[in-house]
Amino acid sequence: MTRVYLDHNASAPLRPEAAEAMTAAMALRGNPSSVHGEGRAMRAEVERARADVAALAGCDPASVVFTSGATEANALAMKASPGPVAAAGIEHPSILENIGDMRAIACLPDGRIDLAALETLLKESPDIATVALMAANNETGVVQPVTEAAALCRAAGVRLHVDAVQQAGKAGLAAIWDRCDSMSVTAHKIGGPTGAGALIVRDPGAWPALIAGGGQEQRVRAGTENVPGIAGFGAAARAAAREADGWAGVRDRRDRLETAMRDRVPEICIVGGGAPRLPNTLCAAVPGVPSALMTMRLDLAGIAVSAGSACSSGKVAASPVLSAMGVGPEIAQSAIRISQGLYTTERDLERFLAAWSDTVAAKRRNS
Ligand code: PLP
After folding, report:
1. Bridge-partner residues for 182, per DSSP?
2. C-alpha 163 to ligand 1 mean position (Å)
3. Would you say the CB of residue 94 lies under 6 angstroms from ligand 1?
């Protein structure tokens, strides 16, 4: 039985274009900082990828600083803040866990940040140096009001860092890049390899050496570049830009699936359903059907989705994202995330729907 993969927000499958680019780069030898022919060939791979990632991000290639992924990009951006950082509890741990002095931005129940609260916070705390705001949330798909937040940041003279990981490839980033000071992206959410990402910065020359060493990546992030990973990232960015139109169909399929789930189980709760969302993401909870049970039953039926709850030290804890939205424990403990890719089919979703409905029915029979 072929498996159905509905966990693209965790990691999208490697695109064939990316695999080919990585294989070709692995056949090269040398160091991209060397001036001989071998080194220059490696450098050419890195610079080609830089141009492709810049095209996807809507920025100048000189703004792209390659990193080992978005965790590193976010951590470096937080480290670079000259003062306290304001962020909401819905942010990724790679933001929250790397802030030294954090000021909390309140969240609305629909999953968006509370802009009025941000405005007040910036007025009352003039020491805030940076606001960190994700473009779209990985668990709920909720798209944040980046344009409005950017206007508040600009008025307050505060930097804005945007984690654009989940939005990259699914919607344009140029309008975000026009309004922020730094942005993070990662390859494996767009069909590139794990272990390659970028911190996009407006003026790399003005940034401190966040990782000091041999001066690579415009001195912002030293270390010999991961050329195969970067080449795969570039190829994935090129392919993602080419296929950007495909997401409208994904949105239609997501909305039809949501309707079908509601028809079968009217008590379903769609987390973030009242806000604008990424086209591929559906966070759904059926009260009384724990996400651990649901994900396990779906896995046994050959379907991969993720739980909206984090598991640490063997203890299932409510997701901090859902807690920040004020979602109660019953919903939080039942939330699952279904995240499609461009090539998810109607048939895949039918198999999901059948296994999901069976699990809800079986749980109710046994309760
Ligand atoms: N930010 C968001 C919103 C994410 O979803 C992820 C991945 O889970 C990251 C950052 C971290 O990216 P990476 O896996 O490249 O470190």
Report:
1. 161, 201
2. 8
3. yes
- 71, two tokens: 């965790």
Give yes or no for residue 321 CB within 6 A of ligand 1.
no
DSSP strands (E only) in 26-181: 64-67, 85-88, 102-105, 130-134, 159-163
Q: Is the CB of 78 under 6 A from ligand 1?
A: no
**Of the residues 9, 95, 138, 319, which should be mutated to test ligand 1's pocket, given the most ligand atoms within 8 Å of the CB?**
138
Tell me, yes or no, if 311 is annotated catalytic.
Answer: yes
The H or E element spanning position 270 is strand 269-270
CB atoms within 10 A of CB 103: 17
pLDDT above 90 (res 224): yes
- Specify the amino acid at residue 329: P
pLDDT digits (tens, 9 = 90+) for 163-214: 999 999 999 999 999 999 999 999 999 999 999 999 999 999 899 899 999 9
pLDDT digits (tens, 9 = 90+) for 254-273: 999 999 999 999 999 999 99
